[in-house]
Structure formats: C-alpha cells, structure tokens
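Weekly sync, protein design subgroup
Attendees: M.S., D.O., the rotation student, P.L. (late)

Item 1: inverse folding check
M.S. brought a backbone from last month's batch and wanted to see whether the design step gives back something sensible before we order anything. D.O. pointed out we never logged the input encoding, so this time it goes straight into the notes. Structure tokens as presented (231 positions):
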C-alpha cells in the first residue's frame, strides 16, 4: 500500500527493495490504502441498517431470505471493517473506533437491558455502553440468538447498525482528508505517522492472535454460513 504508480516508474529495474521517504509512505498509506478501504467500509455499512430493517419488517414467507440477506451484509461489513482496522492508525485511534463499534466480548446481560430501553435513534444509543452494541451485538442478534421480526430486539439491531454506519462514514471522511494532505518530508506529523504505523504494524498482529477474545460466532463452530469473523 506504500507504493504508487508514479513512484514505481522511478525505480530502477535492478533494485529489489526501493527506498521510500516518510512523506511518500504517509501519502501511500492514507491516499492509497486507508482512504479507499474506508470508503468501501462506509458503503457496506450504509447498506447494513437497510438490510436489517428489511428483515425486521418482513412477513413470514420472506423472513428466511431477508435474514440471509442481512447476515450476508453483516459479513461484508465485518470483512471491510477488519480490513480497515487491521492496523489502527490516525482516525481509528483518535475516534476509538474499535471500542465504539467492535467492543469484545459482548455482555449479553447489558445487551438485554439496552434492548429494553428501546433507543429510537443513534443519539439515544449514545447513553448505552460499548459492551452492548456494535458488531458483537449484531452477531448476537442476527446469528446466535436471532431476533424475531417486529420485535424490540430487531429494532435495536437496526439502530445499532445505524451507529456503525455513522462511524464508518466519519472514518471515510477523515481518511479521505488525510489522503489529500500534502505530506512534507520534514514535517513532524509525517515522521509521527510513519513511526506509529511501523509500531502498530509490528505489534497488532501479535495482539490480535493472543489477546482478541473468541467471538460467539467462532465458538459456534464451522456451521455453513454462520462464520462472520475473519478469525
């Protein structure tokens, strides 16, 4: 993600590992990786509330198909989220996005209390703690203990998905801005960006392998179509 077509043209064919400056690296990271990947996440997340709402409003004859569509959209959004958040940098850190929409593990008791409050919109959802919402809540309500259509739990899933969509849109906007930033070679922000990326790139895969708790979907086993997490 650090290389650009223009840079590639300047590299001699006999150079196995070309050198990139910090400014080029920062431009590549934000402009060619985080900006397009976060835009893809925002697009997938925007479709998630609609897919869930369609299931929640469905009639018996169409519920199976609508649920499958909602689960597939959840899969797609989770895949895009895990791609963007694999190495947390910039807005992902500043906005505490992982805590806001992907807190793990879910606390089922907190989720049930949250459902009973029946938040009408994402503003009301702000009063609910992270352990009762986000992707983990949607996995629970759409995969593990599927919420019935026209139920409070199903309506809650729609609002939780709307919050994810809002966060994804904000991330995409921030990464787009950073991707268009003229990174100066001598700028302190450029140096900090590169140092932060290298540190997190080296440390987060190990943290993910050793510290990320197993999700309910993963514990459920390899049932066809049930696994949503990349693992």
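Designed sequence read out in the meeting:
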């Amino acid at each position: 993600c650090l290389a650009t077509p223009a840079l590639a043209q300047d590299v001699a064919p006999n150079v196995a590992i070309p050198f990139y400056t910090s400014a080029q690296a920062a431009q590549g990271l934000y402009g060619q990786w985080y900006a397009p990947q976060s835009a893809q996440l925002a697009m997938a997340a925007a479709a998630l509330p609609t897919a869930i709402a369609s299931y929640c409003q469905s009639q018996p004859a169409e519920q199976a198909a609508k649920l499958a569509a909602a689960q597939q959209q959840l899969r797609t959004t989770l895949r895009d989220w895990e791609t963007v958040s694999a190495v947390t940098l910039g807005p992902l850190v500043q906005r505490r996005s992982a805590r806001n929409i992907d807190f793990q593990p879910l606390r089922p008791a907190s989720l049930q209390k949250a459902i009973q409050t029946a938040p009408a919109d994402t503003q009301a959802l702000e009063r609910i703690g992270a352990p009762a919402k986000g992707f983990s809540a949607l996995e629970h309500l759409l995969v593990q203990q599927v919420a019935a259509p026209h139920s409070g739990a199903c309506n809650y899933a729609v609002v939780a998905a709307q919050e994810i969509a809002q966060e994804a849109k904000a991330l995409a906007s921030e990464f787009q801005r950073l991707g268009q930033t003229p990174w100066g070679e001598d700028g302190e922000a450029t140096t900090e960006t590169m140092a932060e990326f290298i540190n997190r790139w080296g440390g987060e895969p190990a943290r993910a392998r050793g510290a990320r708790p197993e999700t309910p979907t993963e514990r459920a086993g390899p049932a066809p179509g049930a696994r949503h997490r990349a693992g």
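Discussion: The CA atoms of residues 109 and 132 lie 8 Å apart. The chain has eleven helices and no strands.
Action: P.L. to compare against the previous round before Friday.
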